[in-house]
Amino acid sequence: MIQRQVIDVSALPDHAFGSRSIMWWATMGIIAIEATVFAVAIASYFYLQGNEATWPPANTALPGIFWPTVNVAILLASLFPNQQMKKAAEGMEVRKLRVWMAIANLFALAFIVVRVFEYRHLNVSWDSNAYGSITWTLLSLHTVHLVTDFVDTVVLMVLMFTARAARDPRRFVDVAENSFYWYFVVLSWIPIYAVLYWAPRLL
Amino acid sequence: MSVEHLPYALPGDDALHAQLEKTWSPAKGPFRWFMQIDHHILGKRFIITAFVWFALGGILAALMRFQLARPENTLLSNDQYNQIFTLHGVTMMFLFAVPVMEAVAIYMIPLMTGTRALAFPRLTAYSYYMFLFGGIMIYVAFFLNMAPDTGWFTYPPLASPEFAPGKRVDVWAQLVNFTEISAIAVALEVIVAVLKQRAPGMSINRLPLYVWSMLVTSFMIVFAMPAVMLASSYLALDRLVGTHLFNPVEGGDPLLWQHLFWFFGHPEVYIIFLPALGMISSIITAFCRRQVFGYTAMVLSQVATGFIGFGLWVHHMFATGLPQSGESFFTAASMMIAIPTGVQIFCWIATIWMGRPVYKPPLVFVLGFFAIFIAGGLSGVMLASVPIDLQVHDTMFVVAHLHYVLIGGAVFPLLGALYYWYPKFTGRLMNDKLGHLSFWLAFIGFNLTFFPLHKLGLIGMPRRVYTYLEDTGWGPLNLMASIGVVILGLGMLAYFVNALVSAKKGAVATADPWNGGTLEWATLSPPAHYNFVHMPVVSGHEPLWHAPEHAPVVTGLSTTAKEVLVTRTFDAEPDHRYVYPAPTPWPFLAAVATGGMFVALLFSPWALVIGLPIASACVIAWFWPSSPQKEGKVPKEDASPGIVRKSEAPA
After folding, report:
1. Which of residues 412-451 of B touch A (CB under 8 A)?
2. Backbone phi, psi, residue B69, to 5°
3. Which of B196, B238, B576 sits opposite A13 (nearest CB)?
4. By the 8 A CB rule, do B409 and B373 touch?
């Protein structure tokens, strides 16, 4: 038998954050998919706009702009606790992490509550006309992402209060990549907000 | 079983083999079928299930051909014919072509990249059940006389509530949800596994071409499939809650459907075709005994196809009256995509020319591909030109073209590849005589079935008509095509019989029966559940052809936990270890919950409100960490917070 060279990997770490981890890549993949969904939905919005002489169509009121603008502010503010949460996860500081997760969840919750008011001030129903249909669809697509990430974060927070998970480095990677996804939820809101509330006013 | 004769084995590996088999053993017990997450088991299940749908879709095709065999035939009614041609298309596109390509990848990618498992194994299980349930749903609907009848691309206004009452189109819309969720999830796994879990040394420029093709395909799936999911959701909304997205009376637009559908539908063709190209490269390399000529050109062509494939969708819509500048752009793009395909074909010809071809059935299927696919490509270039397209739009010419491209471009290479990798699935070889026979029957039957359709289209026979009058003169060519389908069916039957019988009675295969060069041939046939006793370290394209017994190997991965090595994205240097989860029934239950929700959505939008929390609960239970004992690993008590070790990649 020939003596062969061996690469011993037992000293390598059992987890990694960021683009080294497979969770980061999976999250990026989900973001790519969902960004495509948003892009296609926005394209449909403008495609349908091309069929109408005015936008919103005649006899349809403009969507209320107050609550969605409040939500832009809430979401932008939520970037701070989200960033702190990510840092605490990457540093594997359990106590800090629990606090920041709770705060981040409060922001998400506030956002969801305001979202209800947003819906109530759309001033059009999904079955009134194509404008109403695409407006409701686009807003609901974003809401689904928002609620999903909120539920994810709550589950991870509960996990972080259990002793076992708080010792498993993989859970910290999960939290860090989950907060990475929140950036996507925030950053996708800006163009959707602009399309839903400013396109009917400016275009 | 001894593993010490394998190219990357170390002395004393038989004991390690026993230990790893125990660690990586699949689920046991009476409920094991619902719990498996092993990529071999799921890959095989996926392939078999896809072929069941393929056989059903084939039977539907034969029924259509029998109906058309003579003028004014009464075998099928108008309504049955509509359901059958729709279900045939839906089956072949959504339940066979894409899933079977991904299924082969689930099984083969970890073997070809030298790792222990595919990324996110529980997601593979979920994808499988979604795929299975979707197929069951639509065939149950078919037997309840509820199968969609508006064609596989289901254009509104034909599919709109006022022209398609009942639940048939809703069944179509939900089937798309089932299959696309499944396809997208597998695509993500493939991307992550290919980019992050390769054997050390397998830098991105040493990936086997098949793996490259699956990587490009998976990226295409990620960007194409969301469009059809969104479109089918729009359609479901229009039908279920009264939105007007496709209703022109209220400002909607049926053409929006065509854009969204073909933005998915055209890349879909390349999603089916690219994996087949990768299979061809694998087969040609192995049976011509030399590296593929022009590796870099091949890879760049695949990537170029991936990009250009997104710029062609409007050529399906030339008959809708688009602006002329748009038509010219899409004509140019449609012709341009022939270039990367041509580059690849010339590279293969060069490889065969300079190699020493061994004409075993896998290579013969590939040669059949050349003949059929090139004919299909030429009719494609014809269709890319607007005047010709307008002339033959919605005629049998298009049917001929798409079958030449899809059967020639994907099914023949697939049959060759399954023949080639059969020892890795079963540990045995298929019968060569029967293999050659099945090829010739399929090849002759195929051309007899589909070549006459070119002529029929040119003389004016439309597609999707359930019968025709004798005066049209279409009778003889139709009869010829219908005889052809019997021969084609016999070829497929011979192939299936060969595959089934050989699983029990075929010659027992060694680890590397074809003297292949890529890593799948460095493992047992069939592979152990852990794939490789030691991950190999590779230094070239065909590592087994370059003294693998001298190559370094990886040690130090846990033998008691399901540990996988994560490597760096481009150069595949070892980065860290990652423990895989244990078998679990939750992906199955989550698929039951999601599937139940989709089926209930046929009847009421409230299904979403009730179904989503149930499905989410299942997913949370699936994610909930199992006890460390189950994973075979107790986490270190001293996991020091705040310290992340930098990877210490060995030289």
Report:
1. none
2. -60, -35
3. B576
4. yes
State mean pLDDT over B466-495.
Answer: 97
B47 to chain A, closest Cα gap in Å = 24
Q: How is A38-92 classified by DSSP, letter by letter?
A: HHHHHHHHHHHHTT-SSSSPTT-PPPP-HHHHHHHHHHHHHHHHHHHHHHHHHTT
pLDDT the model gives residue A2: 54
Rounded Cα gap, residues B564 and B571, in angstroms:
17
pLDDT value of position B516: 94
Residue B283 has pLDDT above 90, yes or no: yes
The CA distance from B554 to B522, in Å, is 14
**Separation of alpha carbons B159 and B168, rounded Å:** 9
**Residue B10: C-alpha distances to residues B13, B532, B554 (Å):** 6, 12, 10
Residue carrying the six token digits 């800090």:
A96
The Cα–Cα gap between B412 and B361 comes to 11
The model's pLDDT over B498-525, given as tens digits with 9 standing for 90+, comes to 999 999 999 999 999 999 999 999 999 9
Q: Report how far residue A83's alpha carbon sits from residue A111's, in angstroms, rounded to the nearest whole number.
A: 17
CA angle B549, B550, B552 (to 5 degrees): 105
Evaluate whether B588 touches B35 at the Cβ level (below 8 Å).
Answer: yes
> ipTM of the assembly?
0.95
Compute the distance between CA of residue B651 and CA of residue B638 in angstroms, rounded to an integer: 29
Answer whether B361's CB lies under 8 Å from B436's CB. Answer: yes
The alpha carbon torsion through B320, B321, B323, B324 (nearest 10 deg) reads: 100
> What's the pLDDT band for B644 if we cut at 50, 70, 90?
very low
Q: For residues B87 and B135, what is the distance between their CA atoms, to the nearest angstrom?
A: 11
Six-digit token string for A44: 């449909």
Cβ within 8 Å, pair B188-A2 = no
| pLDDT of amino acid B629 | 53
Question: Quick one: pLDDT at residue A194?
Answer: 97
Q: What percent of the residues of chain A are helix, what percent strand, and what percent coil, each to the nearest 5?
A: 75, 0, 25
Q: What is the pLDDT of residues A163-195, one digit of tens each?
A: 777 788 889 999 999 999 999 999 999 999 999
Tell me whether residues B10 and A6 touch, CB distance under 8 A. Answer: yes
Residue B641 pLDDT level (bands cut at 50, 70, 90)? very low
Residue of A nearest to B651 (CA): A7
Task: Return mean pLDDT, chain A.
Answer: 93
> 């370094």: which residue's tokens?
B552
3-class SS at A190? Answer: helix
Cβ-nearest to B245 among A6, A57, A130: A130
> Residue written as tokens 């290919």?
B194
**Which residues are within 8 A (CB) of A147 and not within 5 positions of it... i.e. 6 or more apart?**
A112
pLDDT in tens, A94-122: 999 999 999 999 999 999 999 999 999 99
What whole-number distance in Å separates Cα of residue A113 and Cα of residue B235?
29
Q: Kindly determine whether residue B192 and residue A30, on different chains, have CB atoms separated by under 8 Å.
A: no
Give the per-residue pLDDT at B635.
Answer: 44
Predicted TM-score of the model (pTM): 0.94
Contact between residue B154 and residue B235 where contact means Cβ atoms under 8 Å apart: yes
Residue of B nearest to A54 (CA): B251
Which residues 12-31 in chain A show a CB within 8 A of chain B? 12-17, 19-22, 25-26, 29-30
Please tell me the distance from the alpha carbon of residue B122 to that of residue B141, in angstroms, as a whole number.
29
Distance CA B266, CA B342 (A): 19
Q: State how far the Cα of B572 lies from the Cα of B536, in Å rounded to an integer.
A: 12
Q: Does A53 contact B at CB distance below 8 Å?
A: no
Which of A2, A90, A129 has its CB closest to that of B251?
A129
The confidence score (pLDDT) of residue B631 equals: 56
